[in-house]
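Q: Hi! First time doing this. I have a protein sequence and I read that you can turn it into a structure. Is that right? Here it is:
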Amino acid sequence: MTDDIHKTAPIDVSFLHEGAAKVDEAQVGGLMARVSELWARLEASPALQTHLDEVQTLVELVGDWRSGAYRQVPFTAIALITFALLYVLNPVDLIPDALPLVGHLDDSAVLALCLRLVRPELEAWRAWKASGAKATGDATEPTPAEPIAEG
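A: Yes, that's right. Below is the predicted 3D structure, encoded as structure tokens:
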């Protein structure tokens, strides 16, 4: 992620899709290596604390995808989640995180929009999780990348 996109782009569906289009599997791994940093950031911000449970769900979904336990989600959804969570970790974004009271409002907006965009994939993953499914080592191939529509 480059800082220039954060300074000029509004937070909308195209902003998330453009950011997600630049995400690769290495960045997914990088995100997973920074989960403790992500928790610390969420817990330190009242604006982000409301997203703790949702972010945990997103991280678990990405973890299951990355391990191969659950591959029934398009990489586009994984990329959207990764972009949104890396955006939260970036202190220099549309509204710099250092600004008191408002610094995390854009992060919260990115998370909320991401959750709205990947809701069908989250629901499918939750149903899979609730069914007691376990990693089998022969996970299905990920579905081809398709744009995730606003919905």
